[in-house]
Specification:
With 570 residues, the chain is an alpha/beta fold. It has a domain at 457-567: ANL, C-terminal domain (GMP Synthetase, Chain A, domain 3, 2-Layer Sandwich). The chain contains 19 helices and 27 strands. It has a nine-stranded mixed β-sheet, with helices on both faces. A five-stranded parallel β-sheet has the order 4-3-5-6-7.
């Protein structure tokens, strides 16, 4: 069943059309809130300024002979990153965003694999690129976002910008008048693989604009909104939803200085929308209730929620007054949390909504630009990933008796394929359907539910399927557990596959509960009892038979997913 749009959206042909029409409409309005110095005040940059800088940067890149070249960008979430992306994609060539957390060897591999000829980077990578041996690479020009002057083949971003402005004044319109083929690859994104080597996902203007229009037709985004940007911009979720979406809708973007500064920067920027991953939201929620309990306010807070929920039935919502102190932690103006990247605990989504912060989640993949399904803001379901966006089809391939099978999808947002890898492309795109590798089901209202990854499923000897993600969800819900990973291990005596877990405790919560530090043995024994309690609610074949305690954090991608191929014991 096709999903019908809820909100009217502006028709856009390509990203250049989107950019120019937005800057025409929202000209003097704030587009970005940036910090020139760490810990300093936010400075506003208007849509008009953004347009002038993009046109200047794009014109200068064309003058440098970079037309139809691949240009990579690597660095923190910042204004120069946004200018680079928009300038390259709207007339120069193909933008290739790199993950700033990648090890040096992997950056070298991606430079070769993608064939980039120019690299735009922040000062953090200055020494790396100055010392880089470029044998076998097409890389020949570099632009440093922070340098004050040029140094050989390493150019200053600000000077490139000034050069572009002069060229524009002299009447150079080669960039401004560049034609866009919306079906051609102009974005090359490397997946932050949780299972091994990254693949290059080829996207077009049409892929992205299709997704932008469909997504904004399901959730109301207005020019009064301020997006809080914390997730890495190279990741397609943050790039499409946290950068291109607000530009499309005339909202502002405030850049966070880092995970440690979330609450401080929210107090300063006073955002209305916060895009994050479950790890962030669930961590905030647990801490909120732990602090309420510690200060003896948990019962009072629970009672206020109950009263307010009763009043809501009569059209009265006192969230702003009753939970003003909670809202002030997020700057006092927050209206919406949007979670993606993995499934959020339904109780956390409901819990934030009870506190007057509308919380919803979506489901997507880089290969789908990225959003496939999204909870509409008029009828969200806490446990669902959402409904397929308008114009996107979703169905379940080869469902079992329980209705669970592989989620497959198609639409105008489907990637062009994997770069230089037809074999991998043919494995996942069959008859225009993309086989996601995710398992799930659809309910009677066409809402999508995710149960796990196909390759992670544990199959017992009697053919029962155990989804690690389900058990990890139960474990991670526990206030004394920070994170966990589940895998199946064969018992040498019986040959049966049993469920094992590795758990990283929440040592702060344990310290508060026991008023003292526990020994490793005491931590293990206590958490074993917690796991036994969870096991009592599970069928026999899903019970967790053995736990291991670990002190260090699991290795993760920059989108905060555990790298299973590194962490699951062999």
């Amino acid at each position: 069943m096709a999903t019908k749009p809820i909100y009217d959206v502006r028709e856009i042909k390509n990203l250049k059309d989107m950019f120019y029409s937005s800057t025409d409409i929202f000209g003097d309005k704030t587009a970005f809130m940036v910090k020139d110095n760490p810990g300093g005040a936010y400075r506003n940059i208007t849509y008009n300024q953004f347009r002038r800088d993009v046109d200047a940067f794009g014109t200068a890149l064309m003058d440098m002979g970079l037309k139809n070249n691949k240009i990579a960008v690597i660095g923190e979430n910042r204004y120069e990153w946004a200018v680079t992306y928009m300038a390259v994609v709207n007339g120069v060539g193909t933008i290739v965003p790199f993950d700033k957390e990648l090890p040096e060897e992997e950056i070298k591999y991606l430079i070769k694999a993608s064939g980039v000829s120019c690299m735009v980077y922040s000062e953090k990578f200055g020494n790396f690129f100055e010392d880089l041996d470029i044998k076998g690479m097409e890389l020949s020009q570099y632009i440093n976002m922070d340098a004050e002057r040029d140094n050989g083949a390493h150019f200053s971003f600000s000077r490139i910008l000034e050069k572009g402005k002069k060229l524009l004044k002299q009447g150079d319109r080669t960039y401004i008048e560049a034609k866009i083929d919306e079906n051609e690859m102009k974005i090359l994104l490397y997946t932050s693989g949780t299972t091994g080597m990254a693949k290059g996902v080829m996207l077009s203007h049409k892929n992205i604009t299709t997704n932008l229009m469909a997504m904004c037709s399901m959730v109301n985004i207005t020019p009064d909104d301020i997006f809080f940007s914390i997730l890495p911009l190279h990741h397609t979720y943050e790039c499409t939803c946290g950068f291109l979406t607000p530009i499309y809708r005339g909202a502002a973007i405030a850049y966070c200085e880092g995970l440690k500064y979330i609450l401080k920067n929210m107090e300063e920027a006073k955002p209305t929308i916060f895009l994050g991953v479950p790890l962030i939201f669930e961590g905030i929620y647990k801490k909120l209730w732990r602090q309420a309990k510690k200060s003896g306010l948990d019962k009072k807070l629970s009672k206020a929620i109950k009263i307010n929920n009763s009043l809501k039935k009569f059209g009265v919502d006192l969230s702003g007054k009753l939970f003003k102190k909670v809202h002030s932690n997020f700057g006092g103006h927050i209206r919406m949390f949007i979670s993606g990247g993995a499934g959020i605990d339904p109780e956390v989504a409901k819990g934030f909504r009870d506190l007057g912060i509308f919380t919803l989640q979506g489901y997507g993949l880089t290969e789908m630009s990225p959003i496939v399904a999204l909870n509409p803001d008029v009828k969200p379901k806490n446990a669902a990933a959402g409904v397929p966006l308008p114009g996107i089809d979703v169905k379940i391939h080869d469902p079992g008796e329980d209705g669970i099978g592989e989620i497959i999808t198609k639409g105008g947002n489907l990637m062009l394929g994997y770069y230089n890898n037809q074999e991998a492309t043919d494995q996942v795109i069959i008859d225009n359907w993309f086989y996601t590798g995710d398992l799930g089901y659809l309910d009677h209202e066409n809402y999508v539910y995710i149960t796990g990854r196909k390759k992670n499923v544990i199959v017992t000897k009697n053919g029962k399927n155990v989804f690690p993600e389900e058990l990890e969800f139960y474990l991670n819900r526990n206030e004394y557990i920070e994170e966990s990973i589940i895998w199946g291990k064969e018992d040498s005596a019986s040959g049966e596959i049993y469920v094992h877990a590795q758990i990283r405790p929440n040592y702060e919560a344990l310290q508060e509960a026991f008023n003292s530090s526990l020994s490793d043995e005491q931590v293990h024994d206590f958490l074993q009892k917690e796991v036994d309690r969870i096991n009592r609610e599970l069928p026999f074949y899903k019970k967790i038979r053995k736990i291991q305690i670990r002190k260090e954090e699991f290795a993760k991608t920059t989108s905060k997913k555990i790298k299973r191929h590194l962490e699951v014991p062999k």
